[in-house]
Design goal:
The structure is a homodimer. By secondary structure, the first copy, chain A, is an alpha+beta fold. Chain A has two domains: about 140 residues, 60s Ribosomal Protein L30, Chain: A; about 160 residues, PurM-like C-terminal domain (Phosphoribosyl-aminoimidazole Synthetase, Chain A, domain 2, Alpha-Beta Complex), CATH 3.90.650.10. Chain A is about 35% helix and about 25% strand. The first copy, chain A, has ten helices and twelve strands. In chain A, the strands form three sheets. Chain A has a six-stranded mixed β-sheet with strand order 8-10-7-11-9-12, with helices on both faces. Chain A has a four-stranded mixed β-sheet with strand order 3-6-4-5. In chain A, strand 4, helix 3 and strand 5 form a beta-alpha-beta unit. In chain A, helix 2 packs parallel to helix 3. Chains A and B meet through strand 2, strand 3, helix 2, strand 4 and strand 5 of A and strand 2, strand 3, helix 2, strand 4 and strand 5 of B. Strand 2 of chain A pairs antiparallel with strand 3 of chain B.
Amino acid sequence: MQGREFDIIRNYFAGLGAAAASRGVALGVGDDAAILEVSPGYQLVAAVDTLVAGVHFPPQAAGDAVARRALRVNLSDMAAMGARPRWFTLALTLADTDTAWLEAFSRGLALDAESYGCALVGGDTTRGPLTVSIQILGEVEPGRSLTRAGAEVGDLVYVTGELGAAAAALDYLADTTQAEQRRALLDRYYLPTPRVAEGLQLRDLASAAIDISDGLLADVGHIAEASRVGVRLDARMLPLFPGLTEISGERQALRWALTGGDDYELCFTVPSDKQPDLQRLIDSGDIGATAVGEIVAGRGIECLDQQGRAITPEQLGNRTGYQHF
Amino acid sequence: MQGREFDIIRNYFAGLGAAAASRGVALGVGDDAAILEVSPGYQLVAAVDTLVAGVHFPPQAAGDAVARRALRVNLSDMAAMGARPRWFTLALTLADTDTAWLEAFSRGLALDAESYGCALVGGDTTRGPLTVSIQILGEVEPGRSLTRAGAEVGDLVYVTGELGAAAAALDYLADTTQAEQRRALLDRYYLPTPRVAEGLQLRDLASAAIDISDGLLADVGHIAEASRVGVRLDARMLPLFPGLTEISGERQALRWALTGGDDYELCFTVPSDKQPDLQRLIDSGDIGATAVGEIVAGRGIECLDQQGRAITPEQLGNRTGYQHF
């Protein structure tokens, strides 16, 4: 634990007093390490995700937006595992000490930590190019976690929420003429909704799950690969973010939904005997999810377009997912 | 888990097969998160430390040196808690894809992970200015962890190993005339020895502990503050790194040992009734440690110089520890 800047962050957390979130914290921020109590009989779930200024967000982005997005993409990893988020550590590299930015960052982080019941337990603040790395820790009962492996032929493929908005926000940044639409899309980019509650509900229903960070085609491809199966998607069933088609036509909306990253919805598969249970959760409004395809024999991903024909790579602009490099 | 670069790192780990280290890994690298089994009845210990090129190491530093130092400074946090390191995640930000550098990085990381029985369980590779952030996870029995609080008046203050070499290496970098001495010092800087075994042995002996990352004065100050006591150090007892005095005189050697960071030795306190047990460990060679002072009533740090007079801030060049900002 180093750096005077970290005191600002710590003070905001202390100020908001995330009491509910700090259960299981035997020793928090301020020593050489935190001491945590994993619930007896539970497994520990650990992930890390980094956001770099100029790569994952514009350098001029507001502090609270950066903090919340950094925590939410990590929470999304917990959701994809069916894990309950508990704690996180923060490695924050700052180019300079902009107190207003840092206070906004701290407020945003505290807000989402409180909302999602996840406590900051340690951190390191260093001088350098603006980078936010969060390591998140959660819990899951043995045998109930969701992984990418486990999908079987005949399972239906679902996604939560709506797709395409985050990718549209990126493409749309250049167009400054339609301020209102732009704001709705940017909100989806900066403030994705990690599907933590949905992940917990899916623990006994889904055969496989992943969060959509690189685009639906790429991420459902990870399920197919890990499960050694094929996938057939139907673009007519895709839950497009409202207004996407109006913004720039059907083909572009489809591209955004299939190949755009950063939506952080869940993609999951459900065997036929569990589909009635899922349908009850959907009908009661507990889960917002849409069937978009099915698991098939073989390998690879096929996607039918609006006319029921297989989509070609050319139709997607040869993009099959966000390449981080 | 993202980034093609990470595959190189993963392959090196798979290649070396850190089988002993991967105990407790129910699901390792390759899904949205790792699933880990904390030993029943143990507490989880978590810390994070970041190294930034140009701040914590020269941009041209070799990949293996950077990787090993990054892991070792984190292992040192486990040592300071009396915890057994188990797992770690890696957030690696790279400016470009230098395969040779990355392979050296991976080899170095694998080497130390194997040596210290600590498994890589997850990571994120992003594009940006070279930054290495490691989050380390360990275990400790409830009630046996070492913290900064707990030192009491009359306890003796000890340090492991020898002090001053890492700080000398930094000051010494400008002097290119004495290659051999320089190499020994640089080795201490890049390859500090995390005192993990010592930390485990000290669990039932030490009343407080910290690792020396910011300099002895600054770090023993953290013990004093957390324990609400004062400290009196005696510079005549300091275990200086061999040759330091010869390099640039007694006063400079003392400055390096007292205010130089990066030694990553442990500083710990032992009550009088436990000192015979500690002495037995020292006599048998199980722990290399030296008494350097005592805990006194009051607040603050006093340090006697070679003539038994209180050292003034001026003698230390007004430095009381490495400020990261």
